[in-house]
Amino acid sequence: MAFQVDPRGRAKAFGAPDPGTATTHTLPLGDPTGGADALLWRELVDGPAAHPRVHIDRGVTVHMSDGARLRATVIRPANTVGVPVAGPLPTVVNINPYNRLVVDAIDHGLHTPVVGNALRRASAAADLSGTPLGGVTDLTRTVSGGVFDVFGINRSLVRSGYVQVIVDVRGTGASTGEWQILGEREQLDSVEILNWIAAQPWCDGAVGMAGWSYSAINSLQAADKRPDCLKAVFAVEGCEDIVRDIYITGGAPSFFIPFWLAVVNAVKWLPNPTTPVRDLLDGHALRWLIDRIKSPATELGTLAKGFLTGDDPRLFDDPFFDERDPKVENITAPTFLFGGWHDLFGRGTPRTFARLQLPAGQKQLMMFDGYHVNAGAGLGRQFDPPRLDVLERAWFDRWLKGIDNGVDRYGPVTMEQQGGSWSCGQSFPRPGFETTICYLSPLGSGTAEHAKHDGTLQSTIPDQAAELPVNPNVRGLISRDMTQVTAGATMVLGKSFTTDARYQERGGLSFTSAPVVDPVQISGALNLHLRAIGETHEQMWAVTVNDVAPDGTSTVLTNGALMGTNRSLDPERSEYDEDGELLLAHHPLTRPTKQPVRPGEAIELDIDLVPTDAVLEPGHRLRVDIYAGSFPRFLSVIPDIRRIRRRPQRLVLDPLRPSYLTLRTLGETGWR
User: What does the pLDDT read at residue 4?
Assistant: First the structure.
């Protein structure tokens, strides 16, 4: 691919796009509900089971090659008196660091006959939508969406003729060793666990991996090693680029990481009381305690030092992350991917799908309009896709049992369009869309007078020049950014945390288009090119792209961030359209590629935004909001705080070097 400078003064690519950045399918459009096939999948899950009970052994030990002992729970189908059935069966494994005590608590809550059934019915029936407590409904519907069956003990799956194994990651739960946080030894553990399972008399040699979040990531990691026994993967909200998805987006550390590390380090100190006598007699309890003392708070100390000094290599795109990112192109096992547009790993799921070198049907993508902790909320309703536990069962029935149930003909891309409804398609981004460029103009739109500046998005380069100051502030505490970085927890606090950004916009620069005249769809990656000046040696920019309703409600569709010193662009790894327009900027985020920011000097930067799929209905407008950071979504290390020092940054609007948004659209905007 060749590069030259375009009339706007930046690198532009020409030639064929990288084949790894796009997917093409030949399957016809499908039905997002799954049709008659999905009705059968659900009946198999909710109807009479092949086996009346399950047998649970919570005291199984799996010995690793380096001497570590990993504790596991093995769940097998059983007869009416609780005796495990004879004969080998396909097996599904889940490996996570959240302590099997937590898994057990969820299991007891959901499957105690009276309490569990009542909880499921209440979560499915409760509807506070349209009220100030609408976010509570979005959260409680997670229970009826099936994700907890994917995460923990799935009794229905086991009773249908599967064995399930749930393992504490080394150094967490009841397992010995030191927690590696998805490191090389931990990945080897996953392969050794799979091989151990395949050799057990209760396993028929066919193994699947399932998981949510961490266990979705290590499922993808294990799959890239291609163990012979691994036949399928069902991954909910995993990722393939940890550094850009969550750790240091745009070079800015995430609040979520120290919070999450503190939680996992706390629960790893809770011993599992299942086998206390045996653990004391065979020395497991003593070894467990010694290992916890050796690493009482894994990575928290080094993380704190990194924030104080800025010297930790993990504040950059370091080999530490390369070791942990799944090698997606190596995966050959059929893989079902589920993600959310506002998930912590929002860009990770569609990127993983694009990189999978599997035919359509053997790879599936489903994206919903939600967050991390409410994965699958609302699934299973009329006109919506099946629940996650139903999809998981259908996926493993197809690839572990060889049942031709039609799940490989579902999708292959099923998406809940923001502002729209569920649909199936052949690819993501959707085909047939055209590149649209929207320029930032200082002229007022009359729609965002509450913002620090009310500007316009327009289709032509503006004639007016301006320098617009914006200061760091803490309005991000009440925003969709806050809900995204808390994995969705603050959705219960009201619309300002989910669907109405006007509070946060009071601290930012807003640029709003004219209303669209027809439905306008947006699909894929977006890029915001800015020219900016600061008064210090660092700048932080946070951006959202919003759908503005006729009543003024401003709903965030996607977001991104970039530190000024990390503006270096890798053209070979960035994504461009057929004409060479930049759609998705790839910033190396390494120490050697940092570029200086000098007070009073203008810099140009491209801010990549999370790919999305949305529709603007007639009368709605598109808005770009620009902030000098978004606390606590994006944090600064102490040296950067000293460089920024809460001084204003200035967005430079220059007709000769314009700032603009690039996106892919379908439909008449009426902006010309």
Answer: 35
The DSSP result for 337-372, as a single string, is EEEETTSTTTTHHHHHHHH--S-BTTEEEEEESS-S
Distances (CA, A) of 92 to 150, 151, 194, 233, 401: 10, 11, 10, 9, 12
Tokens of 394: 């259908």
Distance CA 119, CA 123 (A): 6
CA dihedral 145, 146, 150, 151 (to 10 degrees): 70
Position 75: which residue type?
A: I
Give the whole-number percent of the chain exceeding pLDDT 70.
93
Angle at alpha carbon of residue 88, lines to 84 and 90, rounded to 5°? 105
For the stretch 347-365, pLDDT in tens is 999 999 999 999 999 999 9
Give one DSSP letter per residue of 96-137, joined into a string: ESS-HHHHHHHHHHHHSHHHHHHHHHHHHH---TTSTTHHHH
Is 73 within 8 Å of 163 (Cβ atoms)? no
List domains and CATH numbers for the chain: 2-22+431-666 (2.60.120.260), 35-247+311-425 (3.40.50.1820)
User: Residue 70 in contact with residue 170, Cβ under 8 Å?
Assistant: yes
SS (H, E, C) 208-230: EEEEECHHHHHHHHHHCCCCCCE
Q: State the pLDDT at residue 17.
A: 35
Whether omega for the bond prior to residue 412 falls within 30 degrees of 0, making it cis, is: yes
Cα distance between the two ends of the chain: 32
One-letter amino acid of 107 = D
What mean pLDDT comes out for the span 145-152?
A: 95
- The pLDDT tens digits for 599-658 are 999 999 999 999 999 999 999 999 999 999 999 999 888 777 666 656 789 999 999 999
